[in-house]
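[step 3/7] inverse_fold.run input=structure_tokens len=461
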């Protein structure tokens, strides 16, 4: 899975970190997830603890979007074979036009493009044509918010982009951003379920959201929307960006507050109330698989949290401190030990040395690892920390993340490493030190996965 694996696996601790990462990512792959959570027994489809009688349906469609949706569609076709009649999925996989009867449309991420809009329109046309005896398998995975792009009537793609940019720069939370985006969309916030009614909608999600909130994953196209047009307008007012968004967006949102534009479905609307939703995999899926590998190798294991958020470098320093404590005092776990964590860390861009004008080159997992590496070097801790984004793409780079130890930052390199962090320009330094981890696109996305390995004196060599 990892490029140049032999070079990275220089000690048993490094090799264990890689093996844990590989097991975690593999466990979250769509084919693995569908095989472990779904089964077909005669005409009964089992999804986790639920059962669906396929004899009730004349037609089965696969509709959805996200980075892992192509893999989910392929696994569903393998499972259900000729029972699937059609569908459309929008994903990032190149050079793939169909998976059996399911059409695959390549889209752009993270910024939606015109081809995203055209692909989503094709998907919505199939949803509109679904009947009462249609089962819609809605495959929703990380990246769906951008890939499933359908501007509400009267809105342009450029207006949506400008509005999203203003929201991102305002400091609004993801829930506040989604309140606006859902009310500017023809598919988000339960509208896909509404368009597919009276079909039966069964959502199969691979979660990239801390806490697995169905209304946040992919902006909740098949579930009730807890926000309203009033909430969306209030967000613009709260952050002082009302005049920064295009007039067509302001007019659309204000039309919603006055009742001229139909509200998104709430939990009382049958289209979403009758729709089932299953999280087939999430960050915990990856962590538990990694933990099993650690146990098999004779390491004590501890899950720090599957929901870590915050500034990447600070989270990295915390992991380094935990590693030092384990090595020195055997707390909170005796070595040899593996500490696991997941979630979604972020980077506040302050750097100025960037050809794109937004700081340097790197990603959250790379910054986390470099910050930990600095602490390892200062404390002479023998721990190893590997941190990756499970989709294989950390920030706008070709690396999944990085792996560091006490020798990653050499004597005399501390100032250079601190400057790289200050300028958000860590990629080049980590590449020079051979610390970058590369997988290419993995085919799944359940957010970050971190493995901290603290070896005993005898196993560290």
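[step 3/7] decode complete -> sequence:
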């Amino acid at each position: 899975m990892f490029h140049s694996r032999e070079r990275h696996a220089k000690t048993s601790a490094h090799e264990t970190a890689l093996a844990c990462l590989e097991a975690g990512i593999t466990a979250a792959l769509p084919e693995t997830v569908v095989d472990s959570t779904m089964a077909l027994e005669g005409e009964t489809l089992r999804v986790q603890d639920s059962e669906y009688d396929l004899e009730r349906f004349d037609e089965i469609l696969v509709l959805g979007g996200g980075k892992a949706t192509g893999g989910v569609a392929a696994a569903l076709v393998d499972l259900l074979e000729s029972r699937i009649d059609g569908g459309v999925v929008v994903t990032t996989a190149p050079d793939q036009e169909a998976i059996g009867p399911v059409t695959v449309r390549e889209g752009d991420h993270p910024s939606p493009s015109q081809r995203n809009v055209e692909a989503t329109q094709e998907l919505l046309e199939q949803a509109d044509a679904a009947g009462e005896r249609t089962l819609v398998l809605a495959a929703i995975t990380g990246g769906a918010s951008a890939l499933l792009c359908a501007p509400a009537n009267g809105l342009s793609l450029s207006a949506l982009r400008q509005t999203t940019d203003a929201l991102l720069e305002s400091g609004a939370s993801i829930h506040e951003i989604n309140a606006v985006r859902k009310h500017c969309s023809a598919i988000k916030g339960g509208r896909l379920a509404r368009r597919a009614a009276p079909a039966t909608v069964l959502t199969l999600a691979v979660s990239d959201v801390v806490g697995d909130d169905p209304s946040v994953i992919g902006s909740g196209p098949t579930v009730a929307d807890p926000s309203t047009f009033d909430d969306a307008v209030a967000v613009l007012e709260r952050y002082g960006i009302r005049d920064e968004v295009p007039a067509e967006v302001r007019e659309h949102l204000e039309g919603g507050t006055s009742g001229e534009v139909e509200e998104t479905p709430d939990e009382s609307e049958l289209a979403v109330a009758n729709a089932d939703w299953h999280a087939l995999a999430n960050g915990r899926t990856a962590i538990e698989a990694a933990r099993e590998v650690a146990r098999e190798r004779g390491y004590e294991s501890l899950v720090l949290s599957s929901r870590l958020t915050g500034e990447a470098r600070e989270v990295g320093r915390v992991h380094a401190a935990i590693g030092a404590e384990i090595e020195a005092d055997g707390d909170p776990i005796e070595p040899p030990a593996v500490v696991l964590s997941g979630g979604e860390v972020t980077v506040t861009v302050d750097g100025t040395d960037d050809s794109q004008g937004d700081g340097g080159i790197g990603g959250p997992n790379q910054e986390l690892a470099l910050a930990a590496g600095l602490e390892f070097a200062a404390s002479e801790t023998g721990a190893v920390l590997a941190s990756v984004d499970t989709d294989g793409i950390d920030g706008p780079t070709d690396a999944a993340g990085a792996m560091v130890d006490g020798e990653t930052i050499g004597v005399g390199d501390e100032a250079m490493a601190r400057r790289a962090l200050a300028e958000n320009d860590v990629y080049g330094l980590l590449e020079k030190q051979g610390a970058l981890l590369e997988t290419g696109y993995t085919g799944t996305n359940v957010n970050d996965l971190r493995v901290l390995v603290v070896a005993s004196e005898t196993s560290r060599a």
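[step 4/7] annotate
The CA atoms of residues 376 and 406 lie 5 Å apart.
The longest helix spans residues 312-329.
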